[in-house]
Design brief:
By secondary structure, the protein is mainly alpha-helical. The protein has one domain: LemA-like domain (de novo design (two linked rop proteins), Up-down Bundle), CATH 1.20.1440.20. It contains six helices and no strands. It is rod-shaped, with a radius of gyration of 24 Å.
Length: about 180
C-alpha cells in the first residue's frame, strides 16, 4: 500500500515537472513568434517607405534606372520571403540597394534639399533604428528559447514534443552588409 502511494506521488511529481517544462517551452515559443512579428511590422513599414523614396529620387535622377530596379527587386524579394533565411538574404539586398540609392541621391543637390525627400529620409532612418531594435529583441528571445530547448532535462521533453531550435536573424553575405545604411547628406 505504501509503495503505491509513493509511486503515485512520484508519478504526480514527474507529471507536474513535465507539464512545467512543456508550458515554459510553449511560452518561450510564443515570445519568439511575437518578437518576429515585431520585426515583421518594422520591415513592412520599411517596405512601404521604399517606393515613396524611389519616386522622390526618380524625379531628379531619371537615368539611374538600374538602381531603382534593384531597390524595387530587393523590396519585392523581401516581401515574398518564405522563411527566415530568405528574409535575411532579402534584407541584406535591401540594405545594399538603399546604399546605392542614397549614393545616387548624393549627386543631386536639389534632391538633398527637397522637403519630401528629407522627410522620407528621416522616416527611413527612424525605421532602420526600430528594425535594429526589433532584430535585437528577436535574437534575445531566440537565445532564451534555444537555451531552454538545449538544457537538460528540457532537451528530452523538447525533443519528444517537437520543439526545435530557432534561427537567429543575422546578416549574411558580403562584408559590407554588416555596415549601417548611410542616410545622411
Amino acid at each position: 500500500m505504501v509503495g503505491f502511494i509513493i509511486l503515485g506521488v512520484v508519478v504526480v511529481l514527474l507529471a507536474v515537472f513535465l507539464i512545467g517544462i512543456y508550458n515554459s517551452l510553449v511560452q518561450l515559443r510564443q515570445r519568439v513568434q511575437n518578437a518576429w512579428s515585431q520585426v515583421d511590422v518594422q520591415l513592412k513599414r520599411r517596405y512601404d517607405l521604399i517606393p515613396n523614396l524611389v519616386n522622390a529620387v526618380k524625379g531628379y535622377a531619371q537615368h539611374e534606372k538600374a538602381t531603382f530596379e534593384s531597390v524595387t527587386q530587393a523590396r519585392n524579394m523581401a516581401m515574398n520571403a518564405g522563411n527566415l533565411q530568405e528574409q535575411m538574404q532579402a534584407e541584406n539586398m535591401i540594405s545594399n540597394a538603399l546604399r546605392s540609392l542614397f549614393a545616387v541621391a548624393e549627386a543631386y543637390p536639389e534632391l538633398k534639399a527637397n522637403t519630401n525627400f528629407l522627410q522620407l529620409q528621416s522616416e527611413l532612418t527612424d525605421t532602420e533604428g526600430k528594425i535594429a531594435y526589433a532584430r535585437q529583441f528577436y535574437n534575445d528571445t531566440v537565445q532564451k528559447f534555444n537555451t531552454k530547448v538545449e538544457l537538460f532535462p528540457n532537451n528530452l521533453v523538447a525533443g519528444m514534443l517537437g520543439f526545435a531550435m530557432v534561427d537567429y536573424f543575422t546578416l549574411q553575405g558580403e562584408p559590407d552588409a554588416r555596415q549601417a545604411v548611410n542616410v545622411e547628406f
